Amino acid sequence: MSRPSAWSYVVLLLFVGAVGYASLTDQPALLGGAALLLGVVSWPLGGMLRWLAPVAYALGFLVSLTLPGHEASLLELLGVLLMLGGLGFITLRDQGSARELAWQRNTIAALRAGSERLAEARDADAIIRAGINILDKLQVAPNMAFVAYRQGTPMILAARGAFEGFLERPIHPSDSDSRSVQADHWVAEEVLALLKKPQRRKYHVAAVYGRATTHLGVLILTRNEDVEFDEDETSVIASFARLLGAQLGQWNAIRELRDANDLTLRSLGAALERRDDDTGGHTTRVVRSSERLASRLGWAEDQVKALRWGAYLHDLGKLAIPDAVLHKRGPLDPQERRIIQTHTTVGYDMLQDLHFLPAETLDLVRYHHERWDGTGYPAGLRGQNIPDTARLFTIIDVYDALTNARPYKPAWTRDRALNEIRMQAGRQFDPQYVDAFLRMMAEQDDAHLVL
Known about the structure:
Blueprint: H1 6-24, H2 28-42, H3 52-65, H4 74-120, H5 124-138, E1 143-150, E2 153-160, H6 184-192, E3 202-209, E4 215-223, H7 231-276, H8 282-296, H9 301-313, H10 323-326, H11 334-341, H12 343-350, H13 359-367, H14 388-403, H15 414-423, H16 431-450
Antiparallel strand pairs: 1-2, 1-4, 3-4
Helix pairs in contact: 1-2, 1-3, 2-3, 3-4, 4-5, 4-7, 5-7, 7-9, 8-9, 8-14, 9-13, 12-13, 13-14, 14-15
């Protein structure tokens, strides 16, 4: 609502003056008309000024009674009472409308800001925190908690007000009765019992459901005052609970799909290495080391995931390589080397129909044999033109290949392999990534010494 202008107060004073003039000159018709217009002007100003018209009219009438020779008839008194009743009724109605309008505006603003925060949330905990923040802005209750289940045990995962002291606290039945772990009624009772009675004079409980009526948690709100939650408030809370449930349900579905994708790709990687690695374990080792190095470099979660998926699939194209070439003991001739080098592009082509794979994953599969100096394959990319995931992974992949036996070579010692990686910085590998890798391996050695 815009702030009233100075002219509003000038007009207000003019009508107050008109009421005073009418009362002093004993003109009841002018007094009533001026009071009505005063009400029209004072109501938009809000606050106690809304009561100015009935108060001014009553005072004006009392002043007119003190004038010499004025005697109020019964009909005049009845008219005054009706006028005061009408002005009071209009003022009360307008105050109720103003409160309702303010509540609606506050609700819309809170839901708009909250929906943006919900959309930006990257995990379930962030969604829950954003949701509680929406309720806090709605100002429906000073104390609120969101209770959800972790490994079958209800816990307060987000809170405001008096509940904040119990954040992340598990909730257990206070007696030995055998009760369903996910029964909202006893969970709500136990959570409410955490607060002192003056902090929970009135309360409201709303269950949160996701897709297919999946129970996701419960919202508990309490008030310090003995004021019931009205219909509008409970309706807004119910709408918010549905919004929160939809967001959490969507996140859970995405997480389940991502986990299924991850498990599928990991299984595929494990199956692939059985064809190329007699001892097994190559995929597990390179995935674990790649994730550690990426975390050390401060990569975002999505980029680490793309790296991990690429590590699972990096040798997918070897399915198209003949066994005579793939398992040849001894050096490859030029023709065989050209055949083995096709596994990068073949693997890349095989993954084109998996649309959930990010570009960084496909880049790793295609370019993990490129070299920093531009002499690698398949595209001869140089330096920073090689995608990040491929530049990082090639260090891990080569180190693992050096330190484990292959059909064409015995395993190298750890020190010899690390020295080779160091020597290839700026030639085969990104120098900055090599430096980070060597520091990571040195810290790992230190940790082993401590143990």
